[in-house]
């Protein structure tokens, strides 16, 4: 797929079309783009006038016409000023359009990536697609800028070719070729020379530079992998330090950088070959029109210095327009790599959507309470974890899910949350209620401690006094004066402290349904016991569905769902002893 073929351009059109055809900004974008094209046409017109100016000015110099030469200098100053104004304006409006397009695409890709937990499904269902963060943050920036520059460059080449090909055709009539006593005139001689020169140059450039497309694609991937590996060390710095894994991490870093280094050398050698050719091609292009015009100048004296300069300028414009691929091949190869990365990213998201729509047969419906009917939960390979589960949980009830490791406890919670696509059955939950799911390792967003506490739904109007009260209830009163401190809290706090903050979120959000997937596993039993007692006291109407291994959790729940590991299950009531008695038992 690393070539400019039909599939590439179809995918490119699918990426470009939404903004220019369907977005709310399409008319503004079209208007700005039309103005850029008008500026481009004006710049081509100025270039055309300057090319005509060459003949007049140089002929005036040849005749030693001082006044005429100075007059032409003033004309050139005016033309150059207009060209500079148009060029600066075109750059400004191109950059403005680029950032507006990038903003829209960023929102569009983020929506697609985050919708229905696609970012999660890409990790567990597909190949994960390397570094989606880079594709959204960096590749979109490159894509918008390079696409606009390439399109504007193509249009500029087309208008330049249209404007100057007729001038060069007319100038060709001045070129006569003496041969064996006769004089020949070839219609459009200079135009055909420019076409032949440009076509040969383009073919050779494509042959030499084509490997750069895949090399640039790989370089982006290798560099992203290298950067991501270092980011992972930063995120897990404490664990790696405790393991003493610095030597192993260094080994992995150097391995990944070795890919960057080796591939970059391949790019250097291939680019050097391309640059040898492109540089030579460009230098020969300077003298080539003079070379093919010399017979008319020396033998027939049909043209003067001014005409020769005009021919050189017109030929350079036509040859430059025809040689757009030659002069831009390095940029085109890099652009192709960027487009490929975005194409594959979109295809990965599409594949996940297909898998989700094909396999997701767990229906989620509105209901008066949590009702699970005939629920089968499977792994991606089809192995059944849970068979024909039926549950009925009311507000205020508490259910503990237990079972062996790998028996499907966490996967069941994912199915209840609606993010696990493999299975069949029906899950009912009141649509007006926003359940809160707490994983074993809480997610602490970047920002202040206040932002961490009110994540994910926010608590409008909550004051500092309430936040400090909640911190005290979960045993984190030491942080009460740090509500506006912005730190990397996932690194500052231990896992147990993070889990305490997750319980604080429950008190602030006050959900009707709480699902705790081993959300207190890092705490000791007394701390865990205190937090569960607090939940029951503070939120007596909230249903609590917990996943855990400790039998001590039984005292805080009314029912226990045992997953037996072979797909079967058993639901039992928890018999609580009188105060001061033994541990609760299962009925």
UniProtKB/TrEMBL annotation:
<feature type="domain" description="ABC transporter">
    <location>
        <begin position="370"/>
        <end position="587"/>
    </location>
</feature>
<dbReference type="GO" id="GO:0005524">
    <property type="term" value="F:ATP binding"/>
</dbReference>
<feature type="transmembrane region" description="Helical">
    <location>
        <begin position="70"/>
        <end position="93"/>
    </location>
</feature>
<dbReference type="GO" id="GO:0016887">
    <property type="term" value="F:ATP hydrolysis activity"/>
</dbReference>
<dbReference type="InterPro" id="IPR003439">
    <property type="entry name" value="ABC_transporter-like_ATP-bd"/>
</dbReference>
<dbReference type="InterPro" id="IPR027417">
    <property type="entry name" value="P-loop_NTPase"/>
</dbReference>
<feature type="domain" description="ABC transmembrane type-1">
    <location>
        <begin position="31"/>
        <end position="334"/>
    </location>
</feature>
<feature type="transmembrane region" description="Helical">
    <location>
        <begin position="274"/>
        <end position="298"/>
    </location>
</feature>
<dbReference type="InterPro" id="IPR017871">
    <property type="entry name" value="ABC_transporter-like_CS"/>
</dbReference>
<keyword id="KW-0812">Transmembrane</keyword>
<dbReference type="InterPro" id="IPR011527">
    <property type="entry name" value="ABC1_TM_dom"/>
</dbReference>
<dbReference type="Pfam" id="PF00005">
    <property type="entry name" value="ABC_tran"/>
</dbReference>
<keyword id="KW-1133">Transmembrane helix</keyword>
<dbReference type="GO" id="GO:0140359">
    <property type="term" value="F:ABC-type transporter activity"/>
</dbReference>
<keyword id="KW-0547">Nucleotide-binding</keyword>
<keyword id="KW-0472">Membrane</keyword>
<dbReference type="InterPro" id="IPR036640">
    <property type="entry name" value="ABC1_TM_sf"/>
</dbReference>
<feature type="transmembrane region" description="Helical">
    <location>
        <begin position="148"/>
        <end position="169"/>
    </location>
</feature>
<keyword id="KW-0067">ATP-binding</keyword>
<keyword id="KW-0813">Transport</keyword>
<dbReference type="GO" id="GO:0005886">
    <property type="term" value="C:plasma membrane"/>
</dbReference>
<protein>
    <submittedName>
        <fullName>ABC transporter ATP-binding protein/permease</fullName>
    </submittedName>
</protein>
<dbReference type="InterPro" id="IPR050835">
    <property type="entry name" value="ABC_transporter_sub-D"/>
</dbReference>
<feature type="transmembrane region" description="Helical">
    <location>
        <begin position="189"/>
        <end position="213"/>
    </location>
</feature>
<feature type="transmembrane region" description="Helical">
    <location>
        <begin position="27"/>
        <end position="50"/>
    </location>
</feature>
<dbReference type="InterPro" id="IPR003593">
    <property type="entry name" value="AAA+_ATPase"/>
</dbReference>
<dbReference type="Pfam" id="PF06472">
    <property type="entry name" value="ABC_membrane_2"/>
</dbReference>
